[in-house]
Amino acid sequence: MTTYLDGILAAHREAAAADTRSLDACIEAARSCPPARGFTAALRAASSHGRLAVIAEVKRRSPSKGDIAAALDPAALASQYERGGASCLSVLTDERFFGGSTSDLRAARAAVALPVLRKDFTVRALDVCDARVMGADAVLLIAAALDDHELADFHALAGEVGLDALVEIHDEAELDRALAVGATLVGVNQRDLVTFDVDTSRAVRLAPLVPSGVVRVAESGIGAADDAVPLAAAGYDAVLVGESLVRAGDPAAAVALLRAVATAPRP
After folding, report:
1. Would you call 57 a catalytic residue per the annotation?
2. Could you count the other beta carbons within 10 Å of the beta carbon of residue 265?
């Protein structure tokens, strides 16, 4: 069965095949960037006080739901997120499927002091370098989109150029793969890759399997603080929330409600 992810990855790999830039030159450019803001460190610091850290997302649309807020102002929205107490930002940069752009990331990051995740589909080493050069502090690596060699190579390259890497997983096998490459920041996506439905039990099931030294992030299907409570109780340090915050009448207040959720003590 063809999934949303299959189509998106095919388009990204096709574009990658047409890119003839020198990898060595791109790595050098990435290494030359100013120091990153420390994405994982910001989540650790926020959750160390017994409250759930929030990664607030700038998201214009999705392939399954269409436009969410196509005309949003990324800088203004990022500022509201920061006022509400968000620990980090996530910014969609995929244009074809999510309506995002590099400009959205740059504008959002320039408006705040928060670390920023480039939310996109990393399929090659150049994507990692591009994330650093455009100003991101972290890059997304989706385990389901990468083979073992790609996952290991991209994770290592991210560290080499000064990026944190959020390794996104969906099941136990992908968690094993993430840990095998040394991931210290793992996101559990509750959205099924075949149906795009949300399974709210997925993150709770996987939480106990994530080692205590790894920062745990729950993703997708989090619409309000009530949705975050069982995730925090299961041991998550942070939640990544997009659509519900973008649609909120008061994004700062919506972030604050999530931020008020108490986390479970870590061993």
Report:
1. yes
2. 7
Q: Which residues contact 22 (CB under 8 A, 6 or more apart)?
A: none
Q: What is the mean pLDDT of each run of 10 residues along the chain (267 residues)?
A: 78 91 97 97 95 97 87 97 98 95 98 98 97 98 96 98 97 97 97 77 94 95 92 96 94 97 79
Known catalytic membership, residue 103: no
Does the pTM surpass 0.90? The reply is yes
> Is 32 noted as a catalytic residue in this protein?
no
The closest alpha carbon to 225, from 241, 204, 207, belongs to 241
Annotation says 101 is catalytic: no
Could you say which of 47, 82, 90, 168 is catalytic?
168
Domains of the chain as residue ranges with CATH: 4-259 (3.20.20.70)
**Which position among 57, 82, 174, 243 bears the catalytic label?**
57
189 is catalytic: yes
User: Which letter, b or e, does each residue of 34-51 get, where b requires 16 or more Cβ atoms within 10 Å of its Cβ?
Assistant: eebbbbbbbbbebbeeeb
Read off the pLDDT of residues 114-136 as tens digits, 9 standing for 90 and up: 999 999 999 999 999 999 999 99
Residue 219 catalytic?
yes
